[in-house]
Amino acid sequence: xxxxxxxHAKTGSEPIxxxxxxxxxxxxxxxxxxxDVVLVGDSVGNTELGYETTLPVTVDEMASRVGAVSRATEDxxxxxxxxxxxxxxxxxxSVANAGRMLKEEGAHAVKLESGPHTVDLTEKLVQxxxxxxxxxxxxxxxxxxxxxxxxxxxTQKAADRILELARDHEDAGAFSLVLEHVPxxxxxxxxxxxxxxxxxxxxxxxxxGQVLVFNDxxxxxxxxxxxxxxxxxxxxxxxxxxxxxxxxxxxxxxPAEEHSHEETxxxxxx
Length: 270
Ligand code: KIV
Known about the structure:
The structure is a single chain. This protein is an alpha/beta fold and 270 residues long. It is built from eleven helices and eight strands. An eight-stranded parallel barrel has the order 1-2-3-4-5-6-7-8, surrounded by six helices. The site of 3-methyl-2-oxobutanoic acid has 11 residues, from strand 6.
């Protein structure tokens, strides 16, 4: 599996690839396709658990998904996203929650939606041996403050603040930084400024790597953000397969002989 060192070695020469995955089948697909980093994102809340936002996602829900992904992944680095309020309130609770993802579930690192409140925590986790991926720009756990999911860093003051926080997290020991939904020139400046790799989503082409939500990338979601791209039509494929199944059962075409056990004289069973 790629380590923090491998990612740093790639930085600036080859783009880093990251995709989310939330279960074993998706993790297998992502891993076999050669993605460098699998992020078990708290976006599982909207994409798979039917929540409107990521806020209700619990540590237990994340732990179960991280375990499934890590059991199915052979080569990629696994990053566990820490859910809302599972970090940043109480230090020892934050350490225990993050540590659980590595100790019990097989993650190699955690991601924290970052701000001034995560600088010291990042340092603490890194000192303890828990690699931290920082996340700046649009941090969806702040949806109630934003009133939606608007682009961030669009004024000079806001852009300066993101750059400053990026430096602070690098100094605290973060091994990489996700930049979400920010102007591409700001992402370019942050990428230029930091030694650690930046991984962008809706942040333009200048980051050291790119990340997308798996369900958006494969075309499983009905709606995806404008900065995302559907590289397939899995929803269409699944719908067609299920419709074919329903029709085959209704027409008594399934199960056919090859899907059935040979008829057995019941007496032979005893
Ligand atoms: O939860 C998530 O999927 C994320 C990515 C969009 C970076 O945080």
